[in-house]
Design goal:
Blueprint: H1 3-6, E1 39-47, E2 51-59, E3 70-79, H2 86-92, E4 94-95, E5 99-103, H3 107-121, H4 123-128, E6 133-137, H5 152-160, E7 179-180, E8 183-184, E9 186-196, E10 199-212, E11 218-219, E12 222-223, H6 234-237, E13 243-253, H7 259-275, E14 285-292, H8 320-339, E15 344-345, E16 351-352, H9 357-364
Length: 372
């Protein structure tokens, strides 16, 4: 098993290090960047006792490929959240440029920063129009969410600092101040490789996990939440209902697909979330985006011979392996976000404990692999 499956680039453990049995075959780094061309950038802001936030950026075709739109689909499992740009995704089945994920109070700043970044790097694209896709989850338990700490400069750090390869997880980027199942949550990713219609394709998921009640937590089918309920300061300190928060999930694939097929993939994300136990709180915005990096140039007018556009796509009847890949990668991404974490204290002394890796590992025969 690759070291990338077990540890993050910073040496934090991932779910498989605890012996958790997970379905499906991951790609080389078990991350969304296993989809060729996809890059992830993160900027993390931890300052003083009350600032715990950041920005994550996903470049579907890398920074240089922003002007080339990707086919896309969107699904809202529950709408108590925000993702900009989805009206155009519903209308056209596409979007162009980087995707931002951040704190609830910083959506506007990141949106404006993406606009400015596109104007600097791709002025011809900016002359037409830019409709950035920016999603958010609420980090107000640990972070001074109304303090306007996320700046355009921070967002630019994430935009300019992207790369392929292994992706850091846990309390990094937009996930810095997030909680999940009333443990420390945040950024998580995973991938799956499947063979569809005789071709090998990759599906990768990145998510910002900030949802779930402790009692719901399920790991590889084992309902551990009640068993692990003895250390839950969030039950006392949090002013929001248990389970509130939200999740933004982005699924990427190199499989050639129609926008409607990508919407169907986005609808499978909540099935992966449910495998970790959540029943879907009214106070959680569960927003899911899926895109395909196939068909480069298909949505660029200058590249249409004879004025006609063309898309290659897999037939609907072979979609099931892709649906399964989304479900399994989503489940593992949530668990990675939980496992690759340490306790965090934030504003007003609020504490988010870390998932007790030793107790989880004891259930599945893995190693606790304590970090730090």
């Amino acid at each position: 098993m690759s070291d990338h499956y077990l540890m993050t680039p910073a040496g934090k453990p991932r779910a498989r290090a605890l012996g958790i049995p997970l379905l499906g075959a991951p790609g080389p780094t078990n991350a969304i960047t296993d989809v060729a061309g996809v890059e992830v950038g993160m900027a993390t802001l931890i300052r003083g006792a009350a600032v715990r936030t950041g920005v994550t950026v996903i470049h579907p075709r890398g920074p240089s490929g922003s002007p080339d739109p990707v086919a896309a689909g969107f699904h809202a499992q529950n709408g108590n959240g925000e993702m900009t740009g989805v009206s155009w995704i519903h209308e056209s089945g596409t979007f162009a440029g980087p995707v931002g994920i951040t704190s609830t109070g910083a959506v506007g700043v990141v949106h404006a920063a993406i606009n400015a970044w596109v104007a600097d790097h791709h002025p011809q694209m900016a002359e037409a129009w830019v409709l950035p896709v920016v999603g958010e989850t609420w980090d107000g338990y640990l972070h001074d969410i109304n303090g306007q700490h996320v700046t355009a400069a921070l967002a630019r750090d994430a935009l300019d600092g992207s790369s392929g390869g292994p992706v850091e997880e846990g309390s990094v980027g937009g996930g810095t101040g997030m909680t999940c199942y009333q443990y420390k949550g945040g950024s998580g990713t995973a991938s799956r490789r499947v063979v569809v219609a005789g071709r090998a394709v990759t599906v990768g998921v990145f998510l910002q996990a900030n949802f779930g009640r402790r009692a719901e937590l399920t790991v590889a089918g084992v309902p551990l939440g009640l068993e692990l309920s003895d250390d839950n300061p969030m039950a006392i300190q949090s002013a929001t209902p248990a389970g509130a928060g939200s999740v933004i999930a982005v699924a990427a694939t190199d499989a050639p697909l129609l926008p409607g097929q990508l919407e169907a993939m986005a609808r499978r994300v909540p099935m992966g979330l449910a495998r970790t136990g959540t029943t879907g709180s009214h106070f959680s915005g569960d927003l899911c985006l899926a895109f395909s990096t196939a068909n480069p140039g298909a949505f660029v007018p200058q590249k249409r011979p004879g004025g006609l556009g063309r898309l290659d796509f897999l037939p609907w009847e072979v979609m099931d392996p892709l649906f399964a890949a989304v479900v399994y990668a989503t489940e593992e991404a949530v668990l990675n976000a939980l496992v690759a974490n340490d306790p965090m204290t934030g504003r007003d002394g609020h504490v988010a404990p870390a998932l007790p890796r030793d107790r989880v590992a004891a259930r599945f025969g893995g190693q606790p692999r304590h970090h730090g």
